[in-house]
Amino acid sequence: MQDVIAQTAGKGPLIDPFGRAVTYLRVSVTDRCDFRCTYCMAETMQFLPKSEVLSLEEIDRVASAFIRRGVRKVRLTGGEPLVRRGIVSLVDSLARHLGRGLDELTLTTNGNQLAKHAEALAAAGVRRVNVSLDTLDPDRFRRITRWGELPRVLDGIAAAKAAGLAIKINTVALRGINEDELGDMAAWCGREGHDLTFIETMPMGEVDEDRTDHYLPLSIVRAELAKRFTFRPTDYVTGGPARYVEVAETGRRIGFITPLTHNFCESCNRVRLTATGRLYMCLGQEDSADLRAAVRRSPSDADLDAAITEAITRKPKGHDFVIGRGGPRAAVPRHMSVTGG
Ligand code: SAM
After folding, report:
1. Rounded to the nearest whole angstrom, what is the distance from the C-alpha of residue 40 to the centroid of ligand 1?
2. What is the 4 CA–ligand 1 centroid distance (Å)?
3. Are 301 and 268 in contact (CB under 8 A)?
């Protein structure tokens, strides 16, 4: 009862209508990216004008409001977070909450700018980063990312490791594109000491291809990997949607994020802030709340707190991604780069 009263007043923990506590905020700090991964973006993307994007100070204000309300984990993403000018100063600033409500401040990156920023991120208090990497073949890498150079990303990963950051590799499983090297990716991660998470391609945003062609259920990937590796059950959780196994041969973990074959909504603890300050309460639903208006309306946080409280009352039970439903069209029109992957 105390919680309900506090929440109504814009102060208490964030509990959604299904009793789930919101403890994880993902923040897209920019919609821009220095790659154009074929399943993620169209080659020519229209990016947002600067005036629509939250300033670093505004992002800090919103994230801090969430942390005051019980968010314990913040992940900066994009777009590509490391192309946002001043990103390290934002990390530095948010790091003041570590140990004072915030347990973890982390990033998801394509690794392209990681060599430049790894040490500063580690010095600020970042302990882990997720690096998206779908292939270890340079030609394939260029084809998938359209613009990327694999050696540069591998250098970034090496720099992050040297700076003491734990690295988790995120790999989207793509039929006909990287399905033949997923075992090799697992072996490489094992050798390098990285955990690995496989992700199913999600029908988000129009791209130049039909995603149905490349959709690869992770049940198949897992069965193939199990022929090469011995999986041990583990109850390891990161607060994210992945379900993990431990690989006996490498001692590392492999996670599976299966939004299409296994709905991960029942334990959802997160919300997503876009670069323009829209709060999406579900990755796969259209409803959102405009926190930028609340932030810009008043220098006091009362409006912001009230807008957050109201938004959480609208967090839906889950999404209903179905690959191929309606053909090649996206289930939600937003690209992952808008909502923040
Ligand atoms: N630029 C950063 C990166 O590359 O990690 C952060 C943003 S990116 C949108 C985050 C993650 O979303 C990446 O791992 C990317 O592969 C994944 N992603 C993008 N579009 C996706 C889709 N339609 N289905 C599944 N994963 C997707």
Report:
1. 6
2. 36
3. no
